[in-house]
Task: inverse folding
């Protein structure tokens, strides 16, 4: 678009993929929607941090200057839905062909396994930025990759397409992953 002063003004994209939000922000909005509509109670878990040094330049302006993670964090989210415990992590990748397994730490893999073994619903939500697609990947699909039964350093995009469940991006809720759980994972 040209303005009278001959400067060009770029049009903003109207696609939903350019909303400038991260996957985590979208999941937080979705979870807030679920809570407000009394659908589910799902929260982001805080990362355990040990504060070591605090700088007090003035009484009301304390600033943490040094902190360390106490223990490795497990997964990002947990909660209850239809009397079932759910636990999941969110991952984003700029890669077009796969999600590197190095993005899923060993303690996170073990945690998802532990949840599954105890009867909970364990999964990943993965955003492939280059494709602008979101997938829910149940633990049982991830397990062969975690256990190195499939000798790879990454999970191919095609595995997400063929064995995962695409989550459409919407307005309210943003990423209705519970709809996927209803359709495919809760018997």
Result:
């Amino acid at each position: 678009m040209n303005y009278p002063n001959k400067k060009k003004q770029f049009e903003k994209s109207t696609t939903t993929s350019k909303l400038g939000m991260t996957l985590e922000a979208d999941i937080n909005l979705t979870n807030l929607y679920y809570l407000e509509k009394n659908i589910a109670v799902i929260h982001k878990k805080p990362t355990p941090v040990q504060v070591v040094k605090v700088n007090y330049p003035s009484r009301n302006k304390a600033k943490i200057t040094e902190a360390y993670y106490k223990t490795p964090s497990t997964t990002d989210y947990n909660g209850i839905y239809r009397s079932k415990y759910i636990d999941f992590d969110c991952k984003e990748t700029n890669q077009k062909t796969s999600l590197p397994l190095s993005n899923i730490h060993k303690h996170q893999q073990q945690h998802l396994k532990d949840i599954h073994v105890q009867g909970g619903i364990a999964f990943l939500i993965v955003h492939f930025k280059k494709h602008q697609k979101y997938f829910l990947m149940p633990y049982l699909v991830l397990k062969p990759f975690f256990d190195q039964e499939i000798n790879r350093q990454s999970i191919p995009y095609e595995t997400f397409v063929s064995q995962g469940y695409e989550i459409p991006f919407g307005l309210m809720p943003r990423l209705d992953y519970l709809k996927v759980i209803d359709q495919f994972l809760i018997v």
Observations:
- The helical segments are 23-36, 106-117, 139-146, 157-163, 177-185.
